Structure formats: structure tokens, C-alpha cells
């Protein structure tokens, strides 16, 4: 490999999303782009779903001469703080909030997708044809994409939609703790298909300042995690950029307070982050009912087994069971989510107050979004379509409690096969 100083281009990084976790990850990568000018452009773009914010009188940024609604992007760029989704955390000054997603991604070779999963479809549609064809992505989204009887990982789904390779980042990562720079770890999965540079065909796109290479994978077809022939025709990174490998992604995300392990099991990393949110709801239900830590540990144990079973049954070609049991994105994320995560906390409050989880989400989260409720529904519709719903009694109990078909008191009976 050439020395880093011999590359004439640097990677431009864009974070698509600016919620609680989106802003935290943007803070991390902006700190790293500043520290590594040999690899990255210093400025990081962060796409913000624009909204009007009226600062309360007790806000440190309140200005009586300008007390009407202000754009969230204006506030972030002026005060270097996401006052709505990550208050009281100073963001680096090289992080730029941008209300236009098309403008934010322009010329970026690294795209980090980090927004609640219910919004990603519309954003990807907007991005079609707007990104560099050789860009690479990392999805920080915890959820799965389900259509009728098909299921896919957001990393794959984004990759196929945009024609790029996309890896995944997931771990025991409660955003507020990491934003406060408390010590933690995460898992990144990055495993692009092999490319054969001998099969490269130079093409020049109109207006492009460089030659793009269309690469045919060495084995002529790349299969996704479900064994389907991938629709992605991967474009090689032009040789004037530093190569995008495990080391570069570690450099982009690793901080003294945020340690990164890079693996290749994209399915395991993505599924851990998606499915633990269903289990966290169950943990909140039993805790809210006052059954204590032993009951919570029991649903966590059964939940972990169902997560592994789901991975092996539907993604068995590539998924590594060890990812669930050994990495931050597996059992560690399950533990933190069932201790202090939003899904856990909202489910607990819902039971204590006798209201729905959605009502607690709306009243307590100030616009932040739960992923567990929609993931429980999506996984249930997938399992129903496959005739497998009864093989996953904890996942079924959670959706049935959310939909009012069962109550928390039914959990011991519903899990009797797993417990007795
Ligand atoms: N918050 C955490 O602790 C945490 C940690 C790890 C992973 N995650 C995962 O990261 C992903 C993003 O979570 P988050 O915490 O950044 O989001 P969040 O829960 O803070 O959600 C709010 C975000 O959604 C945006 N939004 C609202 N309506 C929208 C719309 N119509 N279109 C597009 N965007 C809209 C808001 O602008 C805001 O940026 C999720 O999949 C989540 O599971 C979250
Ligand atoms: O707050 P939650 O429940 O969305 O979970 C946050 C993170 O995923 C924990 O790793």
C-alpha cells in the first residue's frame, strides 16, 4: 500500500441523521476527522431533518430580542449543540448541520446512516443518483426491513438501493453516556465483496473530475447474507483515495472513550441491534410489573436464545453465533438496553402507569423514537408469513402485549416451554 501522504484525495464524511445517536456519532467522527487530516477532510456534514425550535426562557441560548421559532440547523451551527436531541453536549465546530440531504452527501466518499429506521426509505429514495458511485456506507440503524415474507438488513437494503457497499455499526451504546465521553465499546461489521482489479473497466461520468472504475467481483457474482445474488455492481474506490478498510473505519470511529472492534459478520451485528429492542420491551414489562431482576434476567435469557435462533434460521449462511454471545453488539447491547435503554424505560413506565408504550414515547421522549415497537410488529409479520411465529414465544408475547391480546401477567404461561 502507498504511504498515506501519497494519496491526493481525502475522504469526505457525511452523517445522515441527527437524533440522539446520530448527533453522538457525528461528534465522534468529527473529532476523528480533525485528528486525522491525512485520511479525512476535516469538515463533517450532518444532515438534519429541519424543524422550528422555540427556546424556552430558561435556555442558556434564550435571546429576548429573538424569541420566536428558529431553525434547528441554525441553532446547531451557531451554538454547536443539538439543543433538542442531544442537549448540554458541545459538538465539534467542524461538524456542519445541513438541512438538505442532497447537499450534505455531495462528494462524500463515506456515508454514515443514523436515523430511526422508519424514515430511511424516504431518505434513500431522495439520495438515488445523488451520491458518489464509489462511496461506502456504514449503517448505525437498529432495525430490520420487512416486506411481506422477506426480511433484510438495513446495511444491505441501503447498499442495494444506492448501489454501494454498506457495513454496520452496533453495540452496547446508550447515546447520552457516549456523548458524555463515558468509556464504552462498539462493534463494526465491514465485509465488502472481493474485487478483481483486472476486470476493471474505466468509465468517465459526465462532469466527473476523475475516472470511475466499474469492478466485477472476482467470482463474478456476489451473494448477500441470505445467499441471494447481490444486485450491487460495486464501483471501485479511485486510486487517489486512501483505501477503505478495517483500519480506516477504526480510525474514523475509535475514540479513547469509544472503543471499536471490527468484524466481518454484518448479519450478526445488525440483527443483534434490531432484535434486542424487542427483548428490552419485555424486560420493561416485567420490571414495570414489579417482578424484579430475576424475572428480567429470565426474559433476557430467553430473548438472547430467540435472537440466536432467528439469526441461524433466517441468516444462517453467514451469521456467526459468537457475534451474539461475544461482541458488544450482542449480549452486551442486550444488557445495557434492558438496564437503561429507552425501549426498556418506556415499556416499564407504560405498565406502571397503565397506558400504552406509544403514549409514553410521545410524552417522555421529546421527539426521540423507539425502535422496539415497530421492530416487534415487523418481525411478527415476517414470522407469521413464514409460519414460524410460535417458535419465537418471547417475540410473540411482546407484540401480543403491545396489541392488547395478552397482558404482562400472561408472560410466565407464554414462556412456559422455555422455562419449565
Ligand atoms: N439513542 C440511542 O441511545 C441509540 C444508540 C444506539 C443506536 N441507536 C439507533 O440509532 C438510530 C437512530 O436513533 P437516534 O437516537 O439518533 O434517533 P432519535 O430517537 O433521537 O430520533 C429522532 C430523530 O428522528 C428525526 N426525525 C423525526 N421525524 C422525521 C422524519 N419524518 N424524517 C426523518 N427524520 C425524522 C429527528 O429529526 C431526529 O433526528 C435508531 O435505529 C436507534 O435504534 C440509538
Ligand atoms: O434507548 P434504546 O432502547 O433505543 O437503546 C439504545 C441503544 O440501542 C443501546 O445500545
UniProtKB/TrEMBL annotation:
Transmembrane intervals: none
Keywords recorded for this protein, A-Z: NAD, Oxidoreductase
Gene Ontology BP terms: carbohydrate metabolic process; glycerol-3-phosphate catabolic process
GO CC field: cytosol; nucleus
InterPro entries reported for this sequence: 6-PGluconate_DH-like_C_sf, 6PGD_dom2, G3P_DH_NAD-dep, G3P_DH_NAD-dep_C, G3P_DH_NAD-dep_N, NAD(P)-bd_dom_sf
MF-aspect GO terms: glycerol-3-phosphate dehydrogenase (NAD+) activity; NAD binding
Identification of the protein by name: Glycerol-3-phosphate dehydrogenase [NAD(+)]
Organism of this sequence: Coleophoma crateriformis
